[in-house]
Amino acid sequence: MIMQLAYFAWIRERVGKSEESMQLPGGIATVSDLIDHLCSINDIYKAALGDKTLVRVAVNQTHVALDHPVTDADEVAFFPPVTGG
Amino acid sequence: MASVSVQAGDFRIADEIAALKNGRVDIGAIVTFTGTVRDMDSDLKAMTLEHYPGMTEAELLRVAEEAEKRWPLVGCRVIHRYGRLEPGDNIVLVITMSAHRHAAFEAADFLMDFLKSRAPFWKKEETSEGGQWVDAKESDTDALKRWG
Questions:
Q1: Domain range spanning residue A74?
Q2: Which of chain B's residues have a Cβ under 8 Å away from the Cβ of A79?
Q3: CA proximity to B46, closest of B111, B148, B115, B126
Q4: Is A85 inside any structural domain?
Q5: With CB atoms 3.0 to 4.6 Å apart as the test, which of A27, B11, B31, B113 could cross-link to B143 if both were Cys?
Q6: Does residue B102 register a pLDDT over 90?
């Protein structure tokens, strides 16, 4: 499956890009699975997403928990806790 | 009907109130909250606000619509800026209008609490030591518990 990934704030800086389209292997059912897969690619993703307690996720621009399902064509964004206002 | 804007430019509070009021005479109470860039240690040159275009507007609207469900508001407006801002600059404006003051005060307070923990904005400060992302505060998460 192909997924649209987006990164913000220091997670964007560590990954080194703000978005990418990625071909993913089978067996990725949840946001947590997706993070585990990205961290297994290389140390860059591991440095950005390795500590799940610091990572917040939106699927199709809605906040979700780590056990939320992901499917083909979803837009998944990773970012630290928000600091607006 | 709530209205939200995410913009780089500044806002003029009086103009925003007049536009939201739109000549109505049945309002009674107008509350505004303005958040500004704070330089606590005389060392902040600027702060850059990054956001998630699309989700930011959607999330602000969800929070504003929730406020409209909870309180009898006749007007609700949220403006949040992004980009590079300097100490003293406006960041965020919330306007709530209701027949009575308690609803307007409480709704504005609720909007700020939820906006701070839900709207996808991230602040990076520029000081003499370089750039530093601002950490989220636990007190902001705790503030949500007030609203059940």
A1: 2-79
A2: 52, 120, 122
A3: B126
A4: no
A5: B113
A6: yes
